TrEMBL record:
Binds 1 Mn(2+) ion per subunit. Monomer. It comes from Gallibacter intestinalis. It holds the Pfam family PEPCK_N. The active site is at 250. PROSITE patterns: PEPCK_GTP. This is Phosphoenolpyruvate carboxykinase [GTP]. Its main location: cytoplasm. The keyword Cell inner membrane does not apply.
Amino acid sequence: MTNNKVLLDWVQEVAELTKPEKVVWITGEEAQLEEIRKEGCSTGELIKLNEEKLPGCYLHRSDTRDVARVEARTFICCKEEKNAGPTNNWMDPQEMYLKLNKLYDGCMKGRTMYIIPFAMGIVGSPFAKYGIEITDSIYVVVSMNIMTRIGTQVLDAIGEDGEFTKGLHSKADLDPEERYIVHFPEDNTIMSINSGYGGNVLLGKKCLALRIASYLGQKEGWMAEHMLILGVENPQGEKRYIAAAFPSACGKTNLAMLIPPEGYRKDGWKVTCVGDDIAWIRIGEDGRLWATNPENGFFGVAPGTNEKSNPNALAATRKNTIFTNVGLNLDDNTVWWEKLDKNPPANSLDWTGKKWDPALGEPMAHPNSRFTAPAKNCPCIAPEFDDAKGVPLSAIVFGGRRAKTAPLVYQSRDWDHGVFVGSIMASETTAAATGAVGVVRRDPMAMLPFCGYNMGDYWQHWLDMGKKISNPPKIFNVNWFRTDEEGNFIWPGFGDNLRVLEWILKRADGKIGARETEIGFIPEPSDINIEGCDIDLDALTGILQVEKEYWKEDIKSIKEFYAKFGDKLPEYLAKEVEAMEERISK
Ligand SMILES: Nc1nc2c(ncn2[C@@H]2O[C@H](COP(=O)(O)OP(=O)(O)OP(=O)(O)O)[C@@H](O)[C@H]2O)c(=O)[nH]1
Ligand SMILES: O=C([O-])CC(=O)C(=O)O
Ligand SMILES: [Mn+2]
């Protein structure tokens, strides 16, 4: 398969440690993959769904104690603790290797070890990064085939002495107490053990394309971000691209696949999706920022996805998709999740595989149940999806889930101030990670769980990038999640978010004015088009205010957070929070 000596030696070393019964190199050929899917069905790892209604689709159930990313068990192991920073778990690399090697010892006994060569980015592109994931999970093999570009083409691209990220995964015995998701950025190595949940085990995604890639980006002068990328074409035929960073389960997939409201559709607005979760961003020869999506599929949140909220995502899941932890309709062998439609199938199994009983009031699908769907399935996938050079960004948008404080939208004064706006992001936690849901926490640039080095150095890297871009995108912050006294969302969201994007793009093109406030530029309410939208001008005006009392509270929390970084906190950010405090307390 390959003459790469480093790779061959490593595979042999891993096989000696984990002691599998069999070793299989994944070629990427359909016949081999189909064999593996069949094998997965015979072991129960996969359940084949209705071939007529959902051709090529499977259901997978992960262990009930293993349904989300585990941030408390995710580590960045670099030589010096200060390089991991105060927001990452750290352990000395040698100590961690020792600990892990004990856990991996014999963990694949009686199992098959699969070797998956994969690419993040387009194979052969100068921006692609290659990896090898060794795993004992069929779910991982078939999911990596959807989420990344895999097979012999990748081995050829790596070549005899090319570099690659080493990724070792084993389900082992799924012991939550011994679960580890570990990154050794200095060794370009990832080790994951005792989990079978996507975010912990599909090592190309968060582990390589964000944690390892953010570290490489800092060294090599580019950026790896937790961002969707979308294209917006207005009725004049002007096409613009936006990248947006929202924390997990805060609306990236939905915004990336937005369907314009009816009036906008009639006028000729078009939205296309380049990516829904990760953006790799570089400075182009023209001095602008260019973004690519290194993935090949969507690992999207299932609950809430329906014909109305996100028809594009739903359409993407109608073939060759793997569903994880959703409900199973026993009458026709299809899947169901909360809000798919109004009629939960009575004769069904819940996400754990037990008969579902509506009387218990429990959801049928897990709140973090997911679909793994090929990007090519998505009706609005952008023509630039396969273009290795990516798309030029007009705007970068940050956003979180905040019932209060953050207004619907505001714009930073300039790039540096935009870095500040990203650094002070906060959001309510969601089911995407284990732990409490709905607790506000600081999540800078939506990268809190994904930054592979010291977040203070990461902010400095953003500031340094700004100095090198002659024509930087404009930077904004949005919040679709403001609630009223009864806890209802005030802004209708989803397709109507295009109304806010329209303002953002007019600002980016310098076509419209705005009101300067203590936190940045805010639209005049009349500048957001709400014709045909389910919100009135009063309510809109309400969510476009700077509410000083809330901001004062937020500034306290920002300062506490910043204080953790000591001398790693860029001076500009330290000064800016003081300046903002002064403006707010006037
Ligand atoms: N109220 C409101 N809810 C939204 C909006 N957009 C998305 N959501 C909800 O937010 C949840 C998650 O949205 P996604 O688009 O899947 O989140 P994501 O950012 O892609 O998440 P990850 O895949 O975890 O990174 C779903 O329950 C959606 O229904 C919006 O504009 N308004
Ligand atoms: O990694 C996962 O499990 C899914 C995801 O996109 C996120 O949590 O942001
Ligand atoms: Mn994500």
